[in-house]
Amino acid sequence: MMHWWLKAGSKTLLDLLKHLIPGIICWFIWKTYAEFIWGDRVGGVSSESIIIQIKHFISTWITSLSRLKIPGVEDVLLEEGIIPRNFKVSRMKIRAIRWIKPQNCLKLNTDACYVPGKAGGAAILRNDDGKLIAAIAFPLVASSSLEAEIFSIAYASRWMVDAGFHGFHVETDCMLALGYLTQVRDGRWKGCFQEMELLRIRKAISFGHIWREANTAAHYLAKSSTNILQQFYRAKDLPIQITLARGLQLEKTSKAVNVLYIEAALSQLLRMGSLRIASFGKLVGCLLILISANFTLISYGPE
């Protein structure tokens, strides 16, 4: 395969297509392997199923190229058995993927990050104008990426309810986790399902799916959650070492915090490269600050 990849290519599009096929094959093999490692796939897999996925991808690709009226493209791939002769592909549909504002309610976007030995989650709360209300990142104890996604949704929903909110909409980009929390009544995560069921009934919470491309803010916040060393929820518990910028320190005893002052300090730290991630928001008296230091303040609220 390495010889195939490194050999000199021709100027024709047919040779270019043949030149790219090894990369496509490697991608689908790696994709299947990663799904097993990170816990998104359960059950067995066969080489035949991977081959079918590869052929479907290439067939769809060739269908899109056929509009260019390139002679001989399909004939060569048919002769080499890359696509079957009786294979039919539906017309490709292209659509824009974007985050959609909620209708007269708050929307909570969640995501999780899992690597062996570490897991974390994140949630971002926005209003019906799309403006940031608050955000949170938190460590998790999970054994797979699927479990991390489920625990992240449950943690973030619980966080919202504890803050006094109800009637909000929760979105995740993990369809499998959404199914376990809304449809699977038995099994390993039965407790989480029962908890979310109660929230739906008592707090009028709804759950939905969002495409991963439209959930990037929560995704990047979740990636930083695995580096959290400590959590603090009350201002009086913050260590003296926590600072916002050069020479500026958060008043531990002050309840009236100047949010604009904090926003400017966080922006300065971001420009200086001292933060892995920073966000802030007012949430029923809660102030969110995420800093890259020995300690990380997640959120704190009224006692």
UniProtKB/TrEMBL annotation:
Pfam families to which the protein is assigned, alphabetical: RVT_3
Residues passing through the membrane, by range: none
Domain RNase H type-1: 109-224
Protein name: RNase H type-1 domain-containing protein
GO molecular function: nucleic acid binding; RNA-DNA hybrid ribonuclease activity
Alphabetical list of InterPro entries matching this protein: RNase_H-like, RNase_H-like_dom_plant, RNaseH-like_sf, RNaseH_domain, RNaseH_sf
